[in-house]
Every structure is written in structure tokens, then in C-alpha cells.
Amino acid sequence: MGLTGIEIYKRLPKTNCGECGVPTCLAFAMKLATGQAELASCPYVSEEVKAEFEEATAPPIRTVVMGAGDHALKIGGETVMFRHEKRFENPPGIAMLISDDMSEEEVETRLKRFNELQYDRVGLILRAHLIAIKNVSDNGTSFINLINKLKEKTNAPFILISQNSEVLASGARACAERKPLLYAATKEGVDELAILAKELSCPLVAKGGNLDELVEITTKLVDAGIKDIVLDSGSRDSHLALHDQIIIRRSALLQKFRPLGFPTITFPCEMTHDPMKETIIASMFIAKYGGIIVLSDLKGYSLFPLLVESMNIYTDPQRPMAVEQKIYEIGGPNEESPVLLTCNFSLTYFIVSGEVETSRVPSWLLVKDTEGLSVMTAWAAGKFSADTIGPFVKKCGIADRVKHKKLVIPGYAAAISGELEEELPDWQILIGPREASHIPAYLKMWKP
Questions:
Q1: What pLDDT is attached to residue 74?
Q2: R_g of the chain computed on alpha carbons
Q3: How many whole angstroms separate alpha carbon 271 and alpha carbon 309?
Q4: Alpha-carbon distance 63 to 54, whole Å?
Q5: b or e along 61-90 (b: 16 or more beta carbons within 10 Å of the residue's beta carbon)?
Q6: All domains of the chain, ordered by start, with CATH?
Q7: What pLDDT does 2 receive?
Q8: Which residues of 329-349 are buried (b: 16+ CB within 10 A; e: fewer)?
Q9: End-to-end CA distance of the chain
Q10: Could you say which residues of the chain have pLDDT below 50?
Q11: Among the four residues 89, 178, 309, 326, which has the most C-beta atoms within 10 Å?
Q12: Run of H or E residues at 65
């Protein structure tokens, strides 16, 4: 937070009523300072103090939400230039473009890809997030018809794009409950769209011909009471657009320049006609600060690497990636198949499961929760020990799925084999390879 505990305490009512759940106002202030409590818990704090707190604690780049309910997308909220300094907060939204001059068949095909292209990785469902609906025909009726059709087929948030403010207004009113992102307020139409965004409580894109013009537009929008703003510097050259992204980020974070303290939207779809080059440009904006990335279309071979890149970059570096603790079936195992044990560190899981698949020996893989630590680290920390593995094996249900009672543990955990035999007296503990690359050869010799 931007205020210290003592600074916060000076602004509290000092009643020590305890209604916030904390005995004293000083203790409550200290919790506020460390993010362990919320100001709303205090029933007696004044509106002036609430407003001051909101301003003091707001991130340098404002958090903007579009969409509604479980499908709402949050972008912005960033506080650092580089991931290793802390972490990046909200992954960029990947959008697919659909225009009202497309045939009905093309719209259906794209919508099907949008709904079906999703991937389960490390327990997370990775998929595109938004649909950018573009008014190319300049016809309000076709624009609204397309919006209504997409409303019926998907719950995804919308970006409404039109150069005609009247058409944009009619489209926005047709799906106002979705809180669509309105594109875009330019130097000429900023006042009109500010009124529309305020009326419908929708986020609004500010689009400038350059950064100076963009600052002028955002200043007008803020003065008009618009807070949820997304920035488009107007650059459609990839080199210049990257330059603008960095300048915007540095200005907001390092110079505390409020007119640029908002998330951005980028358009790789308008920077090239080559689908593969578009994917490369999109990957650049994922790494360098794009809040929303609009693609001309979605293809599995290009979408998947972009989603994985985003997941990796926006993972908290201080918290290891982990998979769910459970029994994983690899290759359709049966009651005679081998049972292997490993930790839930995602990298370990993917390497081990990949090698098991390579062996073509159907197997059961027991993944033990080690809080995302690798086998050796978890063993040293006491999280991959006999007294924790034993209860897991008993409760996971693997004994009901196999006839034999043989458990293969990682070679690096050989030291716990004796203790594990005491914890699991009905099981025979086998020591597997130290290196995952040796798993296929080991499994080839498996005998139930």
C-alpha cells in the first residue's frame, strides 16, 4: 500500500470498537498496511478518508474490468516494469476479431473455434478471452444483429469497434449488461463517447495519433469523470508500437504520470497480413505490456503457444507452479499396470508423465502434493517423506485399482524406502530411476 501503518492509523476514527474484527485501530491499521484487511471493514471511517485511501493505494496502472459475472476480464493493475521485481498481476486478454461484413458461415466457424479452442494445462483452462466485434459495413442494423447473435452463443466479454459514434452507441446499448469495451474515443469524438461510457458504465478506449495526442485525450476523459480507460497509441508499425508500449509503462510506473496510467490494447491483426508474423508480434506484446491483444483469427497452432507464454510470464515467480494431487492415468492402465510416485511440481510432472507416455507402458502416476517443490527440495523440507506419502497412498484409492502392491518411487528419494515400507507394510517399495529419461527403459522391464 502507499501509506504506512502509522499514516493509516492517523486517519482512522480511533474508537477501538473492535467491529472490524481487530481489537484496536492501531492493529487494524497495521493489517491494512500489509494488505491483510480492507478499509470497508471499518464502519466509522469517513467518505473523505475512503477517497484518500483509494487514491493512495491505487496501482500506478489502473485495473479495468470488462464483461460481467464469471466471464469478466480484468486487465491492468500492474506495479512493476519487470517480472523478477515482484510479479505481473493480470494476464493480457486475447481477442478474436469478427466483423459484420463476414458471411454467416464465417461467423459460425470463427465462433466455433473461439468456444472449442481451450487447453487444460497444470490444472488451468487456457483459452481466448474476448471477441472484438467490428462494424465495417457502417450499418447499425447489421452491427446489432451480429452482437445479438454472439450474445446467444457465448458469454465472453465484447470489444465494440466502430468509427460511427451513433452505430457504436446503439451496439453498446444492445449489450450494455456485458460491460463491453467501447472503441474508440479519438481527438474529435472524445466528448460524445465520454458521455456514452458514463451513461452505460462501460470502459472506453482512448485512441491517439501519437502519445502526445493520447495524453490529451485521456486527460479530457479523466476530467469528464471517466476512470476505466484503455490506451491505444495508434501505432500500427510493430517497432513503433513496441516503443509506445514501453514508454507508456515507464511513464506510469517510474514517473507516476497519471494520464498514461492505464492498460493498453494492441492490434497485431492490423500490423501484418501474414498469420505467423501476426503470432510473433502478439507474443512480443504479451511479453511487453499489452493489456489486450486483438488477433485476426484463432488457430490452435498459434493460440496455444501464446496462451502458454502468457501463463508462464504471469505466474508469480515466488510461487512454484503445481498440479493437482491425485491419480493420473497414462495410456489407459489396468489392474496389472505399474504404479509410480512423484511430486506435484509442474515441471517434474510434465517430464515424468511425458517419459511414461514415451515408454508406451500404460501406468498409474500418483502425484503427491509437495506445495510445488521438486522431489529433492520437498524431501529436504519434509514434504516428500514416508509419513506424508503413506497416508496419501492409503487414501487415494490406488489399492482398489491394481492387483499387485508395488510402488515405484523416484531414485532421488531412495533414502525413504525403508521408512515407507513401515508406513505401507502391504506394499513392495521399488526404487525407480534417478533421471526421468531412464523411465522408458525401466518400465520396459516391468513385471506385475
A1: 95
A2: 27
A3: 20
A4: 12
A5: bbbbbbbeeeeebbbbbbeebeeeeebbbb
A6: 5-57 (1.10.15.40), 64-313 (3.20.20.20), 326-444 (3.40.50.11600)
A7: 59
A8: ebeebeeebbbbbbbbbbebb
A9: 59
A10: 1
A11: 178
A12: strand 64-66
What is the spatial distance between Cα 329 and Cα 444, in angstroms, rounded to a whole number?
18
For residue 334, what pLDDT is reported? 94
C-alpha cell at 406: 508395488
Cα(324)–Cα(367) distance, integer angstroms: 7
Residue pair 129/93 in contact by the 8 Å Cβ criterion: yes
- Count CB neighbours of 35 within 10 A: 9
Grid cell in block for residue 373:
517443490
* Residue 67: HSE in the Cβ half-sphere, 13 Å Cα cutoff: 20
pLDDT for 1: 44
Q: How far apart are CA 350 and CA 392, in angstroms?
A: 21
| Neighbouring residues of 350: CB distance < 8 A, sequence distance ≥ 6 | none
> pLDDT tens, 122-172?
667 899 999 999 999 888 899 999 999 999 999 999 999 999 999 999 999
pLDDT (0 to 100) of residue 145: 95
Instruction: Please tell me the distance from the alpha carbon of residue 130 to that of residue 72, in angstroms, as a whole number.
Output: 10
Q: Which three cell numbers stand for residue 220?
A: 479530457
At residue 346, the 3 state secondary structure works out as helix
* C-alpha closest to that of 115 among 94, 102, 104, 129: 129
CA distance 223 to 212: 17
Q: Which long-range contacts (CB under 8 A, 24 or more apart) does 438-443 make?
A: 439/340, 439/352, 439/355, 439/356, 439/358, 439/359, 440/355, 440/356, 440/358, 440/359, 440/361, 442/408, 443/338, 443/356, 443/359, 443/361, 443/363
User: Which residue bears the cell 497509441?
Assistant: 233
How far is it, in rounded angstroms, from Cα 119 to Cα 303?
10
pLDDT of res. 85: 83
Distance CA 69, CA 79 (A): 26
- Find the helix or strand (DSSP H, E) in which 73 lies: strand 73-75
Cell 472506453 -> residue? 204
Angle between helices 211-223 and 238-253 (to 10 degrees): 50
d(CA 360, CA 362): 6
Contact 83, 317 (CB under 8 A): yes
Burial 307-322 (b: 16+ CB within 10 A, else e): beebbebebeeeebbb
Coil, strand or helix: which one is 352? helix
